[in-house]
């Protein structure tokens, strides 16, 4: 049986965050970055997540073996004070760790952290054809509030529609 846990990311986690993210960039279908990113840019991104925002590393343990399998973030939604309490969520799980509950664990952890950090609403933007992420949003009670056809390319030069989702946070 696999058990999942998470911790707040620190400087020692930049490599795993960069590696998991770049795997998603190369694979296509989940990010609008067209080329892999460098560790320095991921480190700067991590450093911008000051309280109440944060980045978390997701860990899986199976048969006594622990490994970092992904990361998730609670980020600024829009940097004007009237939006305080509204955040943007993102998560990336390593390809070989998908399909075994890591995404659901991560979403639950993100929503719990949002509540603990005083957020009132969480939003996310995903490729509309990303069935796994769309299903996760629906499962956790998100409402789709927007759809933009032919909006963004991925690294494989595939043009995707974007879907926009929100959920109110129970505090």
Description:
The structure is a single chain. By secondary structure, the protein is of the alpha+beta class. It has a domain at 3-120: Gcn5-related N-acetyltransferase (GNAT) (Aminopeptidase). The chain has helices spanning 14-27, 39-47, 102-116, 131-139, and strands at residues 3-8, 54-62, 65-76, 86-93, 121-127, 143-153, 159-168. A seven-stranded mixed beta sheet has the order 1-2-3-4-5-7-6, sandwiched between helices. The mean pLDDT is 97.
Q: What order do the helices and strands follow? A: EHHEEEHEHEE
Would you state the CATH class of the domain at 3-120?
Alpha Beta
Average predicted local confidence, pLDDT = 97
Shape: globular
The CATH architecture of the domain at 3-120 can be given as: 3-Layer(aba) Sandwich
User: Count the strands?
Assistant: 7
Gap between N and C termini: 31 Å
Low-pLDDT regions: none
Helix content: 25-40%
Question: Would you kindly provide a brief summary of this structure?
Answer:
With 171 residues, the chain is α+β, with helices and mostly antiparallel strands.
Name the features:
single chain, 171 residues, alpha+beta, Aminopeptidase, seven-stranded mixed beta sheet, transferase, Acyl_CoA_acyltransferase
List the helices and strands and how they pair.
Layout: E1 3-8, H1 14-27, H2 39-47, E2 54-62, E3 65-76, E4 86-93, H3 102-116, E5 121-127, H4 131-139, E6 143-153, E7 159-168
Parallel strand pairs: 4-5
Antiparallel strand pairs: 1-2, 2-3, 3-4, 5-7, 6-7
Keywords: Acyltransferase, Transferase
Protein name: GNAT family N-acetyltransferase
GO molecular function: phosphinothricin N-acetyltransferase activity
